[in-house]
């Protein structure tokens, strides 16, 4: 129930209605002349100083326009003037205007054409005031005084919210002679169809929020992302009442999945004054300023924006005047905007020409901004702090940060903490960075926005009030193809520890001093290569493999084009523990845009690459620490399913394996996201090979029978044999079969077994043999080391071979080797001396004491007549050459029984040695291979 001054005003309105009630012949918006048939005149023509009724009843003596209720019709404009009647008495006048609906309108427009009443002094009305009261709204007090409009400006306009509005004009006794009094008012009655500025149009209506019951102007807004929400000052677009407090609460309750909502307010059209629609608002210039925060005094109107739904939430901005309100964005789905108008004001404030740095009627566009819920675009707690942790996933090891997409309160610090793994380094560079004062706002702060970057060890990497190091060229304009160059260390920041702290401190807050940046960050694995310590981009990674692991490309950007590298050459060295071997499965690889010629299948059924400088992914086995055999090579993008498992699976016999990844000619945008590989390494238990298969001696023979029977063969059959000759000698190998093309996995051969012969320095396959299984002399194959037939400098000679058996089906394979040398050149003057009586007759024919004439090669004397056919022709075991080695009858008769006894002892010793060699040897492990000892034929060089 309304009490106090409001009740008195309502009583006067009722009395006036009873006295002036319309007659049957006049409408409610007209005054009935008293004489019958006198007609009707408009209500504003009553007591206007002119006779409008024929009987002059509209101008009775001592009449006044006060204490009356005025009606009107839509489309008409009315005007009234109030004059003081008695100067010696206090003056009180009530003017009521009622829009009764339909053709009589829905609300009232009041235009104060001339207003002079009292004085506004130090925020208080002195010597007269005007109060405005609307029917159905709580009484709030407050008053208008002073003068208006100013010269050359439009008058102030008031638009009612309710259908009835009452003006109370009051001049106290002390103001009768101190201030002038003028009140000239023009008024209209409007319907809602013409209130498009306030309510929008039928096609595009405005949601002004829900009025909170019991309040004058507080409103609640919900779900503004579905509709056009407009936050308006009371009685918008006209002047607003005095001494009101409006609380506008915005809540977004429905949020799409994986999104986060933030409330945003802006004023695109600037200050919308109480002007007619035909007179646009004056344009502002760039020198106009706004008044905010500590520039606002307590006795002026203001808007306060809270980052939350209560007044205890942080204040983003206090705004008390200016041409444009800066954009304000809450950090969450709720925002409270508190509007307070001071108790007293002058209409001149609302009628002065632009610019005036005072708050006027306003309309704010209310929107809802959505960001990803898992992003770092917003603050997730009461403190502006962001934690960026690295993990093994590529998504978390690299990213782009931007400034918070919401407003930050004044005197706030936003902290970004980067925390990597133990071997990580943090690399960051700004693609863009800037801060600026809001248009129409002037600041004299020496460093309104300060950026500081610390290394985790406490070292200050950067302290900037202006622009930090920038790498702007990574943003390529649309009309330029390709990025020019990568970011350098002079354009970025690289830590020496796994952590970095970045802080941005804003003195004024980001509403007034917006700062924006786009920061690229990356956690760089320095265990492979530490760019901060060395410019040598070497990449060697050692693994002690004790369990199954996955191996991938190095995740260090400085080894790739995006980090400034020209090419990548990375070597992975894997070593299994004793008693184990490894199985490697190459799951996939990508070489980017690069393609090699054609990958061909080798004799082992794996792929090989062209001999060029193109991209390669190579798998090698390492024997005897230095001898490396290439088991497979890839130079085209592939997956395990595309090539089939058998072509990407390597069952390796060595305990040391190398994977070599090489990429030439990087683009500046390439990194490990488009050039990569993935290999899976399994550990398989396998007893070590008990015998040394690195042999050096005068000659020997190796035979492998499949299926395997002896324990030595079971544990050693898949390991190669290294045959090495002494300096000054060459190596000869003999086997039985026929040659096949070197790089062909499918070739005409009756067996799937193979013998592979490699040359060393460098290791390369030179012979691919299809074995016969029998020692058919018609299928003899001879091979010499390179220096035998070709000139090779002494320092580059390598008289050695490596032989590998590929046993895939039942059968046998064998080969012999000899350490050979070339015969001496015979001179014509040479003659046979008595000391040569015991030499081979055959050997003397071509310059060797002991040799193989069919090879034109000399062999060791220890192989002559040793009971084994070492020469392919068997000449070293011919009776003619071996008969001088047996003792004569005269010798036996001279020495008698002692010689016979010694002979029998020798036979017994030989028998025992033969039995010892036939037993299976005990397992031994050789940590480091040693050069093989000289031998001609022993258990360690014969396997069958």
TrEMBL record:
> Where is the signal peptide, in residue numbers?
1-25
Q: Does the keyword Disulfide bond apply?
A: yes
GO CC field:
plasma membrane
**Sorted alphabetically, which SMART domains does this protein's record hold?**
CUB (SM00042), LDLa (SM00192)
One Pfam entry for this protein is DUF7805
Under the heading InterPro entries, the entry gives: CUB_dom, DUF7805, LDL_receptor-like_sf, LDLR_class-A_CS, LDrepeatLR_classA_rpt, Non-NMDA_GluR_Accessory, Sperma_CUB_dom_sf
What does the UniProt keyword field contain? Disulfide bond, Lipoprotein, Membrane, Receptor, Signal, Transmembrane, Transmembrane helix
Q: Where is the CUB domain?
A: 217-369
The portions of this protein that span the membrane are 895-917
Transmembrane among keywords:
yes
Record-given protein name:
CUB domain,Low-density lipoprotein (LDL) receptor class A repeat,Low-density lipoprotein (LDL)
């Amino acid at each position: 129930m309304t009490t106090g001054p409001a009740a008195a005003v309502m009583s006067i309105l009722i009395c006036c209605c009873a006295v002036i009630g319309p007659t049957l012949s006049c409408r409610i918006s007209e005054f009935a002349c008293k004489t019958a048939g006198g007609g009707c005149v408009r209500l504003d023509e009553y007591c206007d100083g002119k006779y409008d009724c024929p009987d002059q009843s509209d101008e009775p003596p001592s009449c006044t326009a006060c204490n009356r209720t005025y009606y009107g019709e839509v489309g008409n404009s009315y005007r009234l003037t109030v004059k003081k009647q008695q100067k010696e008495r206090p003056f009180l006048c009530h003017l009521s205007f009622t829009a009764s609906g339909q053709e009589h309108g829905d609300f009232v427009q009041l235009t104060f054409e001339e207003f002079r009443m009292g004085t506004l002094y130090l925020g208080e009305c002195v010597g007269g005031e005007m109060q405005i009261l609307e029917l159905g709204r709580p009484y709030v007090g407050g008053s208008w005084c002073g003068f208006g409009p100013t010269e050359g400006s439009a008058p102030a306009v008031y638009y009612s919210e309710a259908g009835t509005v009452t003006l109370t004009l009051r001049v106290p006794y002390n103001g009768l002679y101190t201030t002038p009094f003028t009140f000239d008012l023009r008024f209209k009655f409007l319907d809602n169809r013409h209130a498009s500025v306030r309510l929008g149009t039928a096609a595009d209506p405005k949601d002004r929020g829900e009025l909170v019951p019991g309040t004058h102007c507080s409103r609640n807004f919900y779900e503004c992302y579905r509709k056009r929400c407009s936050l308006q000052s009371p009685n918008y677009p006209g002047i607003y009442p005095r001494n009101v407090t409006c609380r506008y609460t915005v809540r977004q309750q429905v949020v799409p999945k994986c999104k986060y909502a933030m409330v945003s307010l802006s004023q695109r059209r600037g200050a919308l004054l109480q002007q007619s629609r035909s007179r646009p608002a004056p344009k502002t210039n760039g020198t106009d300023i706004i008044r905010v925060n500590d520039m606002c005094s307590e006795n002026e109107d203001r808007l306060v924006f809270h980052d939350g739904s209560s007044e205890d939430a942080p204040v983003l901005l206090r705004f008390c005047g200016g041409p444009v309100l800066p954009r304000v964005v809450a950090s969450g789905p709720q925002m409270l905007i508190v509007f307070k108008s001071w108790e007293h004001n002058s209409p001149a404030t609302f009628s002065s020409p632009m610019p005036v740095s005072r708050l006027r009627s306003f309309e704010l566009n209310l929107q809802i901004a959505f960001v990803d819920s898992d992003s770092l675009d917003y603050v997730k707690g009461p403190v502006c702090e962001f934690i960026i942790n690295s993990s093994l996933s590529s998504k978390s090891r690299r990213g782009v940060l931007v400034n918070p997409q919401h407003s930050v309160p004044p005197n706030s610090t936003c902290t970004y903490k980067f925390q990597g793994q133990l071997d990580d380094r943090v690399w960051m560079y700004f693609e863009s960075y800037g801060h600026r004062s809001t248009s129409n706002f002037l600041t004299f702060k020496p460093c309104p926005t300060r950026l500081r970057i610390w290394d985790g060890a406490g070292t200050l990497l950067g302290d900037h009030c202006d622009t930090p190091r920038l790498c702007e060229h990574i943003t390529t304009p649309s009309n330029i193809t390709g990025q020019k160059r990568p970011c350098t260390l002079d354009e970025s920041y690289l830590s020496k520890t796994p952590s970095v702290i970045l802080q941005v401190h804003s003195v004024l807050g980001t509403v007034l001093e917006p700062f924006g940046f786009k920061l690229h960050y990356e956690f760089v694995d320095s265990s492979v290569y530490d760019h901060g310590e060395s410019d040598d981009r070497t990449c060697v990674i050692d693994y002690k493999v004790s369990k199954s692991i996955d191996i991938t490309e190095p995740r260090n950007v400085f080894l790739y084009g995006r980090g400034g590298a020209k090419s990548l050459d990375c070597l992975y060295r894997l070593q299994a523990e004793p008693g184990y071997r490894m199985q490697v499965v190459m799951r996939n690889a990508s070489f980017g845009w690069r393609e090699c010629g054609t990958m061909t299948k080798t004799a082992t059924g794996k792929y090989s690459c062209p001999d060029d400088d193109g991209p390669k992914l190579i798998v090698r086995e390492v024997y005897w620490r230095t001898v490396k055999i290439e088991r497979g090579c890839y130079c085209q993008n592939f997956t395990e399913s595309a090539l089939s498992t058998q072509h990407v699976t390597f069952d390796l016999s060595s305990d040391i394996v190398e994977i070599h990844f090489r990429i030439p000619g990087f683009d500046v945008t390439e990194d490990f996201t488009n050039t990569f590989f993935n290999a899976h390494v399994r550990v398989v238990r396998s007893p070590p090979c008990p015998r040394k298969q690195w042999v050096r001696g005068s000659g020997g023979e190796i035979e492998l029978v499949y299926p395997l029977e002896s324990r030595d063969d079971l544990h050693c059959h898949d390991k190669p044999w290294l045959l090495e000759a002494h300096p000054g000698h060459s190596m000869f190998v003999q086997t039985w079969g026929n040659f096949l093309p070197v790089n062909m996995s499918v070739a005409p051969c009756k067996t799937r077994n193979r013998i592979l012969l490699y040359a060393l320095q460098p290791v390369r396959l030179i012979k691919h043999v299809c074995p016969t299984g029998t020692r058919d002399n018609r299928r003899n194959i001879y091979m010499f080391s390179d220096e035998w037939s070709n000139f090779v400098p002494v320092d580059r000679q390598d008289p050695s071979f490596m032989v590998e058996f590929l046993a895939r089906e039942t059968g046998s394979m064998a080969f012999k080797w000899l350490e050979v040398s070339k015969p001496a050149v015979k001179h014509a003057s040479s003659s046979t001396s008595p000391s040569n009586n015991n030499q081979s007759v055959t050997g003397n024919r071509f310059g060797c004491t002991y040799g193989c004439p069919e090879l034109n090669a000399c062999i060791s004397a220890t192989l002559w007549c040793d009971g084994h056919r070492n020469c392919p022709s068997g000449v070293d075991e011919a009776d003619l050459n071996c008969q001088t080695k047996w003792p004569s009858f005269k010798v036996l008769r001279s020495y008698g029984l002692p010689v016979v006894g010694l002979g029998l002892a020798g036979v017994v010793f030989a028998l025992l040695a033969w039995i010892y060699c036939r037993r299976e040897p005990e397992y031994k492990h050789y940590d480091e291979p040693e050069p093989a000892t000289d031998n001609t034929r022993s258990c360690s060089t014969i396997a069958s």
